[in-house]
Structures are given as structure tokens and as C-alpha cells.
UniProtKB/TrEMBL annotation:
NCBIfam families in the record: lepA (TIGR01393), small_GTP (TIGR00231)
Entry similarity comment: Belongs to the TRAFAC class translation factor GTPase superfamily. Classic translation factor GTPase family. LepA subfamily.
Protein name: Elongation factor 4
Keyword Protein biosynthesis: yes
Molecular function via GO: GTP binding; GTPase activity; ribosome binding; translation elongation factor activity
SUPFAM superfamilies attached to this UniProt entry: EF-G C-terminal domain-like, P-loop containing nucleoside triphosphate hydrolases, Translation proteins
GO biological process, alphabetically ordered: positive regulation of translation
Keywords tagged on the record: Elongation factor, GTP-binding, Hydrolase, Nucleotide-binding, Protein biosynthesis
Residue ranges annotated for the Tr-type G domain, each copy included: 4-181
InterPro entries the UniProt entry points to: EF-4 (IPR006297), EFG_III/V (IPR035647), EFTu-like_2 (IPR004161), G_TR_CS (IPR031157), P-loop_NTPase (IPR027417), Small_GTP-bd (IPR005225), T_Tr_GTP-bd_dom (IPR000795), Transl_B-barrel_sf (IPR009000)
Length: 347
């Protein structure tokens, strides 16, 4: 697909303002997921997310609508998962700022907006839950205008629950958010914004192709670790993994690396081809942990298993930090750092 027809965007909002429900309506409208597979908060794929009713991990998905390729990244709202939001914002060109009509602008609305403005993203303001009897649309509009400096006529009104106004939001995404910037160079540069580990296929890197293209069978290297590997598969999220022959410039997708050493694939690293002389893309700032806890094994011989588990966790959640610790009473373990109490509780 032509790069002019690609739109990369995410949804940012305070907790419980309806991000995942809005994403559900987008998936229904674009017929990305068959009706029989549709369920509430379909992008919240972890059991813990469904149990608590919150988004913990960023989740990309590709939709096709009116001849355009729309790459959406659903983000968490809790302050403990702000790092997930910042990683999402680096992979997109625009953001939907969603505000609950019954609560108005809240703390994380402002915090996430400043993160988006820091990345020079185009902001589309949207007021949700207009169907509720206690919705105060005018007051919420005034708050958003004061925050963004936009006109009241620029703010879209939707109900993610009933589906009212959803098509207008996607039309606005196509109209206002620019296509990804790219150079005409053939050099591959892909930014890793997330990754996870598959027992059979190794590390799967979630990437945005900044320039160039990549297909299965090509030899690639990771610039910050100098690790080389052969690509086993490329594709996109639908939201399940869908295999493709080729990932091109501007697209968001995944690369199956086959790597078994988890440390070789870091979030924020740049992937390039073996023969290319590419420069490292700006990655992400290291986050400072705020809450610490000691993790120890029940049985001393399980220390190596705990270490492997911590490394896999670090691959999937780059905000976690850990270092070896030794206690006279508890034996060998790890001192782990988290961004907040909820982050610790989730782990």
C-alpha cells in the first residue's frame, strides 16, 4: 500500500474514560474482527487485564477502512504504565485525546497529552459517554478548549458504548493525521517499541518500519547490541499475528527473530539489514523505578529459573528493573524496581 494511505495513531486518556471500548467500536466498524469473535475489550488480551477491567500493555492492531490502512495502538491509562504510553507515542503520528463527559479533564488526560505534544503529534479531541444522563458536554468542551487552545467545533462527540459518532472519528483521523515521514533510501531502520518471547520462535519484536522494507529470510542486526539473526517471519496485528510477505516503510508490525538470548532484543533498539550502514534511531529514556521489592525463591535451587523468568518479564515490560540480592535469611534473590504500587501488584 502507498505510504500516503497509511495512518498511525493511538488513543490516550485518563483511567476508565473508554479507550478500549472505543477501540472495540473501531474494530467493529472496520470489520477487522468477525462478529462471532467480538467481545468486550477485545484488545485487552491478558487474563489480568480482563479480570481487573484495565489496560496494562500497549496493543497494536491494523484496520482497513475506505482504502486506508489504519494502525491503532491502544494504551493504558494508569500513571504506573505511563512508560507504555510514551513508547506507543514514538511509533505514531497522531493521537485521539479521549475525555469522559461525566468527569471532564483529569490528571492522566493532561499528563498523556503533554507526552503526545512532546512528540509533536497531531491531537484529535473526542468527548466520550455523551449518552449518560449525567454527561456535562459543554463543561467538558470548555475544559478541553482551555487545555488544547482549540475551538469547540473541532471537538468530536461520541458514545463508545452505543457506537454513535464513531465513523466521524475515523474520518477525522484520515483527514488530520499525516502519513508517516520516510526517506527514499533503501536502508532498513525499524524501531522496536515492544517485544515478547515465544517458546518455539524466540523473541518477537513489535516494530515501526521508519524506512526501508523487510521480509522473511533476510539477515538483520540489532544496532545497540550488535547481535545478528535471520528473520523467520514478518507480519501485522489483527490483533492476532497475521503473516505478511513484506513489511514496508511507515507500517507497524512484528518481526519473528528466532533469538533465544532475551538480552539481545531491547526496547528502543534499531533493527537494520546486515549489509546496511544505518544510524541508530532515537530510542526511549530509561525510567527510574519508584517502588522496590525483594523477590526470593521458596527453594534455593530455583534461583536460575527465577532469573530466566525475570529476563522474560524484562523483555515484555522494559520498565521493570532488577539486580541480584543476597539475604542471610532468604538466600539468593532479586531486588526489583517498579513504577508504582499497581505496577508491583500486577507483576
Amino acid at each position: 500500500m502507498s505510504i500516503q494511505k497509511i495512518r498511525n495513531f493511538c488513543i490516550i486518556a485518563h483511567i476508565d474514560h473508554g479507550k478500549s471500548t472505543l477501540a472495540d467500536r473501531f474494530l467493529e466498524l472496520t470489520k477487522t474482527i468477525p462478529p462471532r469473535e467480538m467481545r468486550e475489550q477485545v484488545l485487552d488480551q491478558m487474563d489480568l487485564e480482563r479480570e481487573r477491567g484495565i489496560t496494562i500493555k500497549l496493543q497494536p492492531v491494523r484496520m482497513s477502512w475506505q482504502g486506508y490502512e489504519l494502525n491503532l495502538i491502544d494504551t493504558p491509562g494508569h500513571v504506573d504504565f505511563t512508560y507504555e504510553v510514551s513508547r506507543s507515542l514514538a511509533a505514531v503520528e497522531g493521537a485521539i485525546l479521549l475525555v469522559d463527559a461525566t468527569q471532564g479533564v483529569q490528571a492522566q488526560t493532561v499528563a498523556n497529552l503533554y507526552l503526545a505534544l512532546g512528540q509533536n503529534l497531531i491531537i484529535i479531541p473526542v468527548i466520550n459517554k455523551i449518552d449518560l444522563p449525567n454527561a456535562d458536554v459543554e463543561k467538558t468542551k470548555t475544559e478541553i478548549c482551555r487545555l488544547l487552545g482549540c475551538g469547540k467545533d473541532e471537538i468530536l462527540l461520541v458514545s463508545a458504548k452505543t457506537g454513535a459518532g464513531i465513523d466521524k472519528v475515523l474520518a477525522e483521523v484520515i483527514k488530520k493525521i499525516p502519513p508517516p515521514e520516510t526517506s527514499d533510501g533503501k536502508t532498513l531502520r525499524a524501531l522496536i517499541f515492544d517485544s515478547n518471547f515465544d517458546e518455539y520462535r524466540g523473541v518477537i519484536a513489535e516494530v515501526k518500519i521508519v524506512e526501508g522494507s523487510i521480509k522473511a529470510g533476510e539477515k538483520v542486526k540489532f544496532l545497540s547490541t550488535n547481535k545478528t539473526t535471520e528473520v523467520l517471519e514478518v507480519g501485522y496485528f489483527s490483533p492476532k499475528l497475521k503473516k505478511l510477505d513484506l513489511l514496508q516503510s511507515g507500517e507497524i508490525g512484528y518481526i519473528v527473530t528466532g533469538l533465544k538470548e532475551i538480552q539481545s532484543c531491547r526496547v528502543g533498539d534499531t533493527i537494520t539489514k546486515m549489509e546496511d550502514k544505518a544510524k541508530l534511531l532515537p530510542g526511549y529514556k530509561e525510567v527510574k523505578p519508584m517502588v522496590f521489592a525483594g523477590f526470593f525463591c521458596k527453594e534455593g535451587h530455583e534461583y536460575q529459573q527465577l532469573r530466566e523468568a525475570m529476563e522474560k518479564l524484562k523483555l515484555n515490560d522494559a520498565a521493570v528493573s532488577f539486580e541480584p540480592e543476597n539475604s542471610p535469611a532468604l538466600g539468593f534473590g532479586f531486588r526489583c524496581g517498579f513504577l508504582g504500587l499497581l505496577h508491583l501488584e500486577i507483576i
